[in-house]
Design goal:
Elements: H1 8-17, E1 30-31, H2 34-44, E2 51-55, H3 61-69, E3 72-77, H4 82-89, E4 96-100, H5 108-116, E5 121-126, H6 132-141, E6 146-154, H7 155-162, H8 172-180, E7 181-189, E8 194-195, E9 202-209, H9 220-232, H10 238-244, H11 252-261, H12 275-288
Parallel strand pairs: 2-3, 2-5, 3-4, 5-6
Antiparallel strand pairs: 1-8, 6-9, 7-9
Bound molecules: S-adenosylmethionine.
Amino acid sequence: MEPKLGNPQNTIAVIQKYNFVFQKKYGQNFLIDTHVLDKIITAAGITNNDMVLEIGPGIGTMTQYLASAARKVIAVEIDDHLIPILEDTLSEYDNVTILHDDILKVNITHLASQYNGGRPVKVVANLPYYITTPIIMGLFEKDVPVDNITVMVQKEVADRMQVGPGSKDYGALSLAVQYYAEPYLVANVPPNCFLPRPKVGSAVIRLKRYSSPPVSVRDPALMFRLIRASFNQRRKTLQNGLSNSPDLSLSKEQIAQAILALGMPASVRGETLTLEQFARLADYFFEHTHQKGNPLC
Ligand code: SAM
């Protein structure tokens, strides 16, 4: 079935038919550019074997494209007013299930086992920008079976996902994304590709999940506690950032010893450490503190 939405005329027609009012609180900016939609579907590499999870289908624009390419699409939408619209715009597609729910409360692992025999799913979305980070972190940290995540995000967030030490955009999100996945910038997307137009530029990014992470670390959760503590106070030294964190119980001496043992200067700042260095720091604490019956939390 050829997708019918994705251009301004048909989108406006649907919105007028249902007197739909855009809700800012749900980050509603609908895509009205067929070239961008085609790029997203191609970048996600969807085949007719795939189950796709779409987060926030809106009026079903991208859902029509996904349903034409995939075996099964599960679309999770929070807004009550969009459910009857989706039932209309997707009525001709028998491979789409609409779930009326908050994506942050959905058990995606359960959906993968119910609809995909537990095999990894592809996640595709024009994300609601107010919850981009919790959605992506939830997919990674809850060990959801995911093959790749192809999403529209704020341009600035796409930048944060790709940079390393030395950039002002480098932070906990960069390290988490790069530990779990290989980021690839698919396209920059200007505001005029959406209705209504967002105030910021957007970008499509694909995160291909690694089968094994690029660095080895004994306790990834501990590494991420160290990372968060370092970047929560990014202007402070690593030593102060870690010792001030309520999430860790490390003494100043333990931290100083670790920094010395890893060959870093005492005044080093957390924002200069690579993923590999955070992994070594976590392993140091795991071996010297954690294992001796003094867990860090
Ligand atoms: N996919 C559509 C498109 O590209 O035209 C709409 C994208 S719009 C940027 C984000 C969508 O996510 C909206 O439909 C919004 O109602 C929905 N949404 C917002 N918060 C959500 C949540 N917590 N769970 C599920 N959907 C959500």
